[in-house]
Amino acid sequence: MEFAETLDIGGYELSIEPMTPADIPRLHELSVAVSWPHRADDWAMVIGLGHGWVARDQIGRIFGSAMWFPFSRTVASIGMVITSPRLQDQGAGRWLMRRVLDETQGRARVLNATKEAFRLYVSLGFKTLAPVAQRNGIVTACPDFGTGARPMRDADRTRILELDTNAMGVARPEVMWAILGVSEGMVIEREGRITGFALMRHFGRGRVIGPIVAESEQDAIALCGPFVAAHQGDFLRVDTREPEGTPFTDFLSAAGIVPYDAVQRMSLEPLPEPTGPARTFGLINQALG
Known about the structure:
Elements: E1 6-9, E2 12-18, H1 24-33, H2 40-49, E3 51-56, E4 62-70, E5 75-83, H3 92-103, E6 108-113, H4 118-123, E7 127-138, E8 149-151, H5 157-168, H6 173-180, E9 184-190, E10 193-203, E11 206-214, H7 217-230, E12 235-240, H8 247-255, E13 258-267, E14 279-282
Parallel strand pairs: 5-6, 11-12
Antiparallel strand pairs: 1-2, 2-3, 3-4, 4-5, 6-13, 7-12, 7-13, 8-9, 9-10, 10-11, 11-14
Helix pairs in contact: 5-6, 7-8
C-alpha cells in the first residue's frame, strides 16, 4: 500500500516522522491537550518499549502520535494514538494508524479504544471484545482485604512473568521486565508456588495498580489491599475489565477508587486464548494491556 509521507490538513502541512525521546516535551503537551494524565516520565517509558510515529508541522510542532508495542512475533498492542483537538475528525488519526498497521502486518493487533477514536477503529476493521473501566480517586478508606499476600522478592520475578503470560495468552517479557523495574509488588504464595501478583508504580496523577493477576476475586482483593492501606489520602488508579457489582470492584469503590471513564478493548485479528487458571484483574495501562 502506497503511503503519503506528508499530509495537508486543517491548514497545516504535516510530515510523519519516527518518534524519539527528544519529542517527549511536545508529546507531553499533546497528551495534556486531550486531558490524558501521562507525565513526561510515562512517555519516556512507552517510547523505550515501543515504536512510534508523530505528525509534525514545518516548525516542529507535534499534532498527532501513534505507537505499537511488540508483545511477541505474533501479537502487537497499539496505543498512544492522539490527535490534536484542532485536527480531530480531519484524517490525521487515520493517517497515523495506517502507518502503524502497515508496520504490524503479520501480527494480531489489539488496542483499547477511547470514545473519541472508537469510530475510527471500527472503520479500520477492529472488532469489540470487552469494555475496560478506568477507575481512580483519592483513597478515602481501606476496606477489609483479608490476608495471604506478601511483598514481592527478586526471586519471584520469573514466576510473575509466567503468570502474566498465562493470563494474557501471550508473552510480553520486555514490557514486564520494564514494569517490574519501577514497581512495588505483592504476591500470593501457596505451598511454595506463587499463584497471583499485583504491581504498583508511579503514573499520571499518582500511582496505578497493575497488572493484577489472580485466581479469584478474593486473591485480587488481598493483593491490592496492602497498597490501598499504605496510600490512604493518595490518588490511585486501576484499569480493569471486571464489571460493576463484583467483590473486587466493590472493594475498589469502597476505597474511593471509582469509575471515571471507559474504553473498549478491540482487536483486528483473533487473539491467543489465556491458559489460566489465574486471570488479569488489572491492566498495566491502556496502551500496554
